Amino acid sequence: MHLQAQGVTVRFGGLVAIDTVSIRLDRGEILGLIGPNGAGKTTLVNVLSGFQRPLEGSIFVGDRNCTALPRHEFPRAGIVRTFQAVRLFRGLTVAENVETGYVAQGLGRAAARRRALEILGELKLADKAHSLAAGLSYGEERWVGLARALAVSPRFLLLDEPAAGLAAAEADELRDLITEIRTKYDCGVLVIEHNMALVMNLCERIQVLDSGRTIATGTPIDIRSDPTVRRAYLGPDLRQ
Questions:
Q1: What is the DSSP secondary-structure string of 48-78?
Q2: pLDDT of residue 236
Q3: Max CA-CA distance within the chain?
Q4: Environment class of residue 32 by beta-carbon count within 10 Å: exposed (0-12), middle (13-18) or buried (19+)?
Q5: How far is CA 132 from CA 96, 125, 128, 205, in A?
Q6: Hey, is 90 helix, strand or coil?
Q7: How would you label 52-65 residue by residue, b for 16+ Cβ within 10 Å and e otherwise?
Q8: What CA–CA distances, in Å, run from 149 to 87, 120, 154, 197?
Q9: What backbone torsions phi and psi does residue 144 show, to the nearest 5 degrees?
Q10: Whose CA is closest to 151, among 181, 115, 114?
Q11: Reading across the β-sheet that carries 79-81, which strands appear in turn?
Q12: pLDDT tier at 240 (50, 70, 90 boundaries)?
């Protein structure tokens, strides 16, 4: 099973945000998507998750063409994403925020509450379950956003800058957590991230965008040593 975009192009007026980009995420794989600001990374994730309809190209889950699906059908196809800005319901408790994911799948309120408390325990947020989301720290908000995404039991989990604003120790915890999620949920994970230590130590494969085009794909070792990538994004001082 895989999630794949083939020849995707997105334009906003005269701006070409993505220019004939293809990408493939296999179930069970952790794939990094990196590049400078404005490279088209978030736009590509928007396409993969149904938030942006491509002008050209197609989106497949396995052999199923999902390009024309309405946005709300993408989670039912197994595609779930998080956002750079965590969009919690700040007037609800942490548990209630996570419950919404289960209720959307058709679970009753009591069953949704049980599952929400279980997943919060897995993410070490059990002590925050009955606290209002408005009182969470930035890092805790990101963990709750991740818990809510996992409530949909994704086949493919797309994370848009999950380590943004996290301290080094928190980013290390996130790396371990993503690895555990991949194993427990048997899902493919795509990570957009500017924290190169996280990307290089987490991802088995990395795709690099620049100006809306793919300029390289390979293992972390391949990407670190690629002169085109170093000129466009990593710079000459990244440790080998």
A1: HTTSS--SEEEEEETTEE-TTS-GGGTGGGT
A2: 62
A3: 55
A4: buried
A5: 9, 13, 8, 38
A6: coil
A7: bebeebebbbeeee
A8: 11, 12, 8, 24
A9: -70, -40
A10: 115
A11: 79-81, 156-160, 188-192, 30-34, 205-210, 213-218
A12: very low
DSSP structural state of residue 127: G
DSSP 204: S
Rounded (10°) angle between helices 94-104 and 109-122: 120
Q: Are 240 and 224 in contact (CB under 8 A)?
A: yes
Residue 20, CA distances (Å) to 5, 23, 44, 160, 233 in order: 10, 10, 11, 21, 20
pLDDT in tens, 208-232: 999 999 999 999 999 998 999 988 8
Helix H or strand E segment including 24: strand 15-26
Centre a 10 Å sphere on the Cβ of residue 111 and count the other Cβ atoms it contains: 14
Q: How far apart are CA 23 and CA 48, in angstroms?
A: 10
Interhelix angle for 138-150 vs 94-104, to 10°?
20
Phi, psi (rounded to 5 degrees) for 21 = -95, 135
Q: What is the pLDDT of residues 38-78, one digit of tens each?
A: 999 999 999 999 999 999 999 999 999 999 999 888 988 89
